[in-house]
Amino acid sequence: MAIIVAAHADDELLGWYLGLKKGLVKSVLYPLPMSSERNYEATRCGQLLGFTPVFGEEACSRMLHAADDTVYVPAPTDKHAEHQEALTWAVQWARADRLFEYSIEKDAPYVCPLKAIEVAEKREAFGRVYASQVSDLTDPKYFLFEGTAKLGVPSITVTLSRAGKHTWPGAPDEVAFLRTPHRHRFHVRLTLRDLFRSDRQFEFFLVQRWAEATFAMVQEQAPMEASCEYLARALALLARAHYTVPTTVSVWEDNENGAEVSI
C-alpha cells in the first residue's frame, strides 16, 4: 500500500487519481496548515476514494516515521513553494528507498495521457469533493496527464574530446588570426536530461561511443567556418532524435571557451 504526501487538499486527486481509484493508497498526509473547509473536503475525498486523511505536521510525522509503505511526494520539478515545502518535509521523515514522486502540474517527464473515460471520471470525482477549487476543472493540465516515478529523475552526462580545425573569415580585426584555419581540441559534454527510469535507462559507455562517432561525423560534414555553437547544435539535434529525451550539448575550445545548446 502507499501513502501520499500532499501540500493541499486536492493535490492527491490531481496528482495520482489512478492510484486512488485502484485502491492503492491507504493514507494521505497533509502536514501543512489548511483551512477547515479544505480539511472537510479532504475528508470527503477520503470517504469517496477509500483513504484515511491525516492532518497536521505532528500527526503526519508520527505516521510517516513509523510507516513501511511506499511514499509518494510532490515532484521536484513542481516549483510551487508549498509543494516544495511538502517535498522537503517528507524526505526528512520517510525512508529513502520508499520515496516516489507524482506530478501535479504535469511537467515531469514520466507523465502519460489518461484515457478519455479516466479524464471524465477524474473530473467528476473532483467536482463532487472539491467545490472550493471548482475553477481548476477548466484547466486541462490537471486532468489530461498523470504519472509517478522513483523520486529523483536523473540526467546522465558523457564527455569526449577530439582535435579539429575551423576558421572565421569574418573575424574582427582584434582577432584577425581567426580568419585562417587554426587547430583546437574540442571538448564535448553530452547530457541526456529528465530520464523517466531511475537507473540505467541508457548505459554511459554506449552513449559515449555513439557521441564520439556522431561528433566525428558532424566535424567531417561541417563547413570549415563552423563555430562551437554550430557543432553543439548539430550534435544536440542528432542526440535528441536518437535518444528521444531532452538533450544538452556543450562544445569547448581547448577547455577554455565554449558554447552550449539545449533541445
Keywords:
263 residues, Rossmann fold, Tetrahydropterin Synthase, Chain A, 7 helices
Description:
With 263 residues, the chain is an alpha/beta fold. It has two domains: 2-150, LmbE-like (Rossmann fold), CATH 3.40.50.10320; 156-262, Tetrahydropterin Synthase, Chain A (2-Layer Sandwich), CATH 3.30.479. It is 37% helix and 25% strand. The protein has seven helices and twelve strands. Strand 1 (2-5), helix 1 and strand 2 form a beta-alpha-beta unit. Helix 1 crosses helix 5 (116-129) and helix 2 (36-49) crosses helix 5. The chain is elongated.
Q: Estimate the strand proportion.
A: 15-25%
Number of helices: 7
- For the CA atoms, what is the radius of gyration? 25 Å
Which fold name is given in CATH as the topology of the largest domain?
Rossmann fold
Domains counted in the coordinates: how many?
2
User: Helix content range of the residues, please?
Assistant: 25-40%
Structural class: alpha/beta
CATH superfamily of the largest domain: LmbE-like
Shape: elongated
Can you tell me the residue ranges where pLDDT is under 50 for at least 5 consecutive residues? none
Layout of strands and helices, then pairs:
Blueprint: E1 2-5, H1 11-21, E2 25-30, H2 36-49, E3 52-55, H3 57-66, E4 70-74, H4 81-93, E5 99-102, E6 112-113, H5 116-129, E7 145-146, E8 148-150, E9 156-166, E10 182-192, H6 204-221, H7 228-243, E11 247-253, E12 257-262
Parallel strand pairs: 1-2, 1-4, 2-3, 4-5
Antiparallel strand pairs: 5-8, 6-7, 9-10, 10-11, 11-12
